[in-house]
């Protein structure tokens, strides 16, 4: 796919300018109610959309909550808020920004933890999603800022432990830069989308992200343990489940990322080795460490419980079906479905290339698979359109794809 060009040519002509700190300097972190009220007064006096970002402690903490909230608004400057120091009470901020348009990058990552703080946008502009729809091959924030605005952002602290207190000044500088250019980036992307005739598509996508319900919990999350494909018997699967659940309980209690309590590889190695004693367990990688030795009895009790579990309580070799089978099995299970999917992929790829956008943004791959595996009785464009709408496709997607998908659904092996 070619890059969108009209909005980026000028920025590409010269070397990007390094942006190592915010224009007005890195603001102090808001940690008390009085300072929060003052910051909210500045934001309320500002104009236009509000740039918003969060920093979480993914990989360090169990709960995906926000440990820092960054905001910026025209004429108000940037604000850094510590929700932990404020006990999660950001009600003055709720009053100021919940009725406004927010600009975020990869909004679906930040909206859930913001909602936990009662922060919810009235309207949304997602710069990452806008970049995808505009046809940019790389849509990381730094890449889009460099290509469209001619600045190179200071990066490098995205994977640090944001639950650390006090937060180091270089981290705060990085966090403030994440909202420094979101508003001008929004303006460039909006102009690009308008020039390509895709602005209405983008607004529909943003609204879908804004109003998306919380993700439903998986019925058997332990089956996602990395390396579980090595485990064949129901009895050993029960042991994986037992260790996964024991780890999850500890992780919740201690608010630690599960992988920091016990990595998936250690769970699989303990089950494959059929460890029965502390010596057996401690002879394995990871379990011989000082911290893990303290938990040996905890893990062994769970493994022993799995060994004596009644047959009726053992897990099935495979989890409950969640949609169609893997695509590589379609040719054997249902050759006509495989033919429909191949035709659909050809049709949709051609459409996506014509409109210069990723095929997965043209129509969700899972919706395509489900429709091809179990097509509607009415395979006309109108019948397919109804199926797509029921599956969550937006109006612009239905309009573009219903006819092509209808043709594909008539394909047979």
TrEMBL record:
<protein>
    <submittedName>
        <fullName>Ribonuclease D</fullName>
    </submittedName>
</protein>
<dbReference type="InterPro" id="IPR051086">
    <property type="entry name" value="RNase_D-like"/>
</dbReference>
<feature type="compositionally biased region" description="Pro residues">
    <location>
        <begin position="317"/>
        <end position="327"/>
    </location>
</feature>
<dbReference type="GO" id="GO:0003676">
    <property type="term" value="F:nucleic acid binding"/>
</dbReference>
<dbReference type="GO" id="GO:0008408">
    <property type="term" value="F:3'-5' exonuclease activity"/>
</dbReference>
<dbReference type="InterPro" id="IPR002121">
    <property type="entry name" value="HRDC_dom"/>
</dbReference>
<feature type="region of interest" description="Disordered">
    <location>
        <begin position="311"/>
        <end position="332"/>
    </location>
</feature>
<feature type="region of interest" description="Disordered">
    <location>
        <begin position="1"/>
        <end position="31"/>
    </location>
</feature>
<dbReference type="Pfam" id="PF00570">
    <property type="entry name" value="HRDC"/>
</dbReference>
<dbReference type="GO" id="GO:0000166">
    <property type="term" value="F:nucleotide binding"/>
</dbReference>
<dbReference type="InterPro" id="IPR036397">
    <property type="entry name" value="RNaseH_sf"/>
</dbReference>
<dbReference type="Pfam" id="PF01612">
    <property type="entry name" value="DNA_pol_A_exo1"/>
</dbReference>
<dbReference type="InterPro" id="IPR010997">
    <property type="entry name" value="HRDC-like_sf"/>
</dbReference>
<dbReference type="InterPro" id="IPR044876">
    <property type="entry name" value="HRDC_dom_sf"/>
</dbReference>
<dbReference type="InterPro" id="IPR002562">
    <property type="entry name" value="3'-5'_exonuclease_dom"/>
</dbReference>
<dbReference type="Pfam" id="PF18305">
    <property type="entry name" value="DNA_pol_A_exoN"/>
</dbReference>
<dbReference type="InterPro" id="IPR041605">
    <property type="entry name" value="Exo_C"/>
</dbReference>
<dbReference type="GO" id="GO:0006139">
    <property type="term" value="P:nucleobase-containing compound metabolic process"/>
</dbReference>
<dbReference type="InterPro" id="IPR012337">
    <property type="entry name" value="RNaseH-like_sf"/>
</dbReference>
<feature type="domain" description="HRDC">
    <location>
        <begin position="233"/>
        <end position="313"/>
    </location>
</feature>
């Amino acid at each position: 796919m070619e890059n969108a060009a009209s909005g980026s040519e000028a920025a590409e002509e010269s070397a990007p300018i390094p942006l190592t700190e915010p224009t007005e300097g890195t603001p102090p972190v808001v940690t008390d109610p009085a300072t929060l009220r003052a910051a909210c007064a500045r934001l309320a006096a500002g104009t236009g959309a509000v740039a918003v970002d969060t920093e979480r402690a993914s990989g360090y903490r169990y709960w995906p909550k926000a440990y820092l909230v960054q905001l910026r608004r025209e004429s108000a400057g940037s604000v850094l808020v510590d929700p932990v120091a404020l006990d999660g009470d950001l009600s003055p901020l709720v009053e100021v920004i919940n009725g406004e348009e927010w600009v975020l990058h990869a909004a679906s990552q930040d909206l859930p933890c913001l909602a936990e703080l009662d922060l919810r946008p009235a309207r949304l502009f997602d710069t990452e999603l806008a970049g995808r729809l505009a046809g940019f091959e790389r849509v990381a924030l730094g890449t889009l800022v460099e290509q469209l605005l001619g600045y190179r952002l200071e990066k490098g602290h995205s994977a640090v432990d944001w639950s650390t207190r006090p937060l180091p000044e270089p981290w705060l500088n990085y966090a403030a830069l994440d909202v420094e250019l979101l508003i001008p980036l929004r303006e460039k992307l909006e102009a690009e989308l308008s020039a390509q005739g895709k602005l209405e598509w983008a607004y529909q996508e943003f609204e879908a992200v804004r109003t998306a319900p919380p993700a439903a919990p998986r019925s058997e999350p332990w089956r996602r343990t990395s390396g579980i494909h090595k485990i064949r018997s129901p009895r050993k699967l029960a042991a994986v489940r037992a260790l996964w659940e024991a780890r999850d309980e500890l992780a919740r209690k201690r608010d630690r990322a599960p992988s920091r309590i016990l990595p998936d590889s250690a769970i699989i190695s303990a089950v494959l080795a059929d460890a029965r004693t502390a010596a057996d367990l401690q002879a394995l990688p990871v379990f011989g460490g000082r911290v893990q030795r303290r938990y040996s009895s905890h893990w062994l009790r769970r493994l022993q419980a799995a060994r004596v579990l009644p047959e009726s309580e053992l897990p099935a070799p495979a989890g409950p079906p969640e949609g169609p089978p893997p695509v590589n099995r379609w040719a054997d299970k249902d050759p006509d479905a495989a033919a429909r999917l191949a035709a659909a992929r050809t049709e949709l790829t051609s459409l996506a290339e014509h409109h210069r956008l990723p095929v997965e943004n043209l129509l969700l791959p899972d919706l395509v698979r489900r429709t091809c595996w179990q097509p509607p009785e009415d395979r006309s464009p109108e019948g397919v359109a109804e199926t797509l709408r029921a599956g969550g496709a937006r109006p612009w997607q239905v309009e573009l794809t219903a006819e092509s998908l209808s043709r594909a659904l008539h394909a047979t092996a």
